[in-house]
């Protein structure tokens, strides 16, 4: 039975009214009227999207239609919660229990799960810790949530490929209906790509929080345990709902859609300069700056339609990235398209979509009569490629025309533009439809 009420309190109402003055008696209170016992029905009215329990109390005895094990599990999951805004039917003198959220941690490896040879080593380390060992390193969270964890794989994030993304996606989709939030431990090198992929393929109001570390577990002042602890607390917090995929590192909370790794070494590496952070974590307190919202222009792609229920069998189209620079050899473009069988191309352009006139014309002559998509992204960390930056080229009759195959990459960096183009192509979108998707980013 799912809870649809938006209230976050328990509602206590007498099942039988004996006209006695015990209505404000707390559940479990030793004082009672054995001759005229009063039964209370306690119903969790939080909007946790999972099965909740309903216990009928009569004096000090608990009676439930659930098994004793289920009842024991439910009762041990409770922690005191004072009622501040109770309705007139609820006694504000009663301190009632609250159901703790259930959080699932999925371990994938990364620096957070790595060990070095010394306490000062911060490079050249190897992944060597399981998710169970990581969970054991964090402070007590028994009053915050019920925690479950599972090792999906244990690799450096540089080893991530499409198959790993699809395995992780499948696991999250399987688990979402059973948990109130998901936490993922992940290497920082490609964390932003995983976050963007999950944000573009999983439509849920539940928090999905990705964390990692910049120092291995053996380093002085390792940041892993605190980052994992904060991610779990963030995923457990009701205010984290409806914000999309979040990345939590170094006391910062950012949107996985836009955030990127900005520094190869520093702890304060994940930034989204133009869009900013969505909140921060200070002294065990979560502070969000804005109401719950997801990025505008976000497009969701359903990977498990009626014809394909197993996402792990999907083979996403090949899309390659070319990094533009002075004196770019245009033969690289031809090689990528014709020999590597690329189905789409992303170019990390100079400035806000700048390529040499020679390169733009070369691309047009190569693919101008096709619907082959080329996304003009940007090398710079901040800023965007607007539609106005789409180049003009010379047609066969020597007229200057817009390069129709070119797509403005907006605010996305090349690695995220690549994922979005792969998803568009996998969905079977044509060139004009792909342009509409990128117009929102």
What is the CATH architecture term of the largest domain? 3-Layer(aba) Sandwich
Strand order of the largest sheet: 10-7-11-12-13-14-17-18
The CATH homologous superfamily name of the largest domain equals: L-asparaginase, N-terminal domain
Q: Tell me, rounded to a whole number, the average pLDDT.
A: 82
| Radius of gyration (Å) | 27 Å
Describe this structure in words.
With 441 residues, this protein is of the alpha/beta class. It contains nine helices and 24 strands. β12 (208-211), α5 (224-236) and β13 (245-249) form a beta-alpha-beta unit. Mean pLDDT is 82; it is low at 1-96.
Secondary structure topology:
Layout: E1 10-14, E2 39-44, E3 54-58, E4 61-63, H1 68-76, E5 78-82, E6 95-99, E7 102-109, E8 114-115, E9 126-127, H2 131-136, E10 146-155, H3 162-175, E11 181-185, H4 191-201, E12 208-211, H5 224-236, E13 245-249, E14 252-255, E15 260-261, E16 270-271, E17 279-282, E18 285-288, E19 319-323, H6 331-339, E20 344-349, H7 357-367, E21 374-378, E22 392-394, E23 400-402, E24 406-408, H8 414-426, H9 431-439
Tag the structure with descriptive keywords.
disordered N terminus; about 20% helix; single chain; Rossmann fold; 24 strands; alpha/beta
């Amino acid at each position: 039975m799912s809870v649809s009420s938006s209230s976050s309190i328990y509602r206590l109402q007498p099942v039988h009214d004996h006209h006695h003055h015990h209505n404000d008696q707390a559940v479990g209170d030793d004082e009672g009227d054995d001759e005229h016992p009063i039964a209370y029905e306690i119903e969790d009215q939080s909007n946790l999207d999972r099965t909740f329990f309903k216990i009928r109390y009569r004096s000090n005895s608990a009676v439930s239609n659930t098994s004793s094990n289920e009842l024991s599990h439910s009762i041990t999951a409770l922690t005191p919660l004072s009622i501040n805004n109770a309705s007139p039917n609820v006694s504000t003198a009663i301190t009632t229990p609250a159901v703790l959220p259930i959080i699932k941690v999925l371990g994938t490896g990364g620096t957070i799960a790595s060990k070095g040879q010394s306490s000062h080593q911060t490079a050249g380390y190897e992944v060597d810790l399981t998710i169970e060992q990581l969970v054991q390193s964090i402070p007590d969270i028994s009053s915050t949530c019920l925690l479950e964890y599972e090792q999906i794989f244990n690799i450096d994030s540089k080893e991530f490929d499409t198959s790993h993304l699809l395995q992780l996606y499948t696991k999250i989709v399987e688990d979402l209906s059973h948990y109130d939030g998901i936490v993922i431990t992940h290497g920082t090198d490609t964390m932003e790509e995983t976050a963007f992929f999950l944000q573009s393929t999983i439509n849920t109001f539940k928090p999905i929080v990705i964390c990692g570390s910049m120092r291995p577990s053996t380093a002085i002042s390792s940041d892993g345990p605190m980052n994992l602890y904060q991610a779990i607390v963030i995923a457990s917090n009701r205010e984290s709902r409806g914000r999309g995929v979040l990345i939590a590192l170094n006391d910062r909370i950012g949107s996985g859609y836009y955030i990127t790794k900005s520094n190869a070494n520093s702890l304060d590496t994940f930034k989204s300069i133009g869009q900013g952070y969505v909140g921060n974590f200070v002294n065990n307190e979560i502070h969000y700056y804005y109401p719950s919202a997801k990025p505008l222009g976000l497009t969701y792609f359903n990977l498990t339609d009626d014809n394909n229920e197993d996402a792990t069998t999907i083979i996403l189209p090949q899309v390659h990235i070319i990094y533009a620079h002075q004196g770019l050899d245009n033969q690289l473009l031809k090689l990528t398209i014709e020999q590597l069988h690329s189905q789409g191309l992303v170019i990390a352009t100079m400035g806000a979509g700048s390529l040499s006139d020679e390169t733009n014309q070369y691309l047009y002559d190569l693919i101008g009569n096709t619907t082959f998509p080329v996304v003009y992204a940007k090398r710079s960390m901040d800023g965007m490629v607007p539609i106005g930056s789409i180049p003009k080229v010379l047609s066969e009759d020597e007229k200057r025309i817009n390069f129709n195959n070119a797509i403005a990459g907006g605010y996305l960096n090349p690695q995220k533009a690549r994922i979005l183009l792969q998803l568009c192509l996998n969905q079977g979108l044509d060139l004009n439809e792909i342009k509409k998707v990128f117009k929102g980013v």
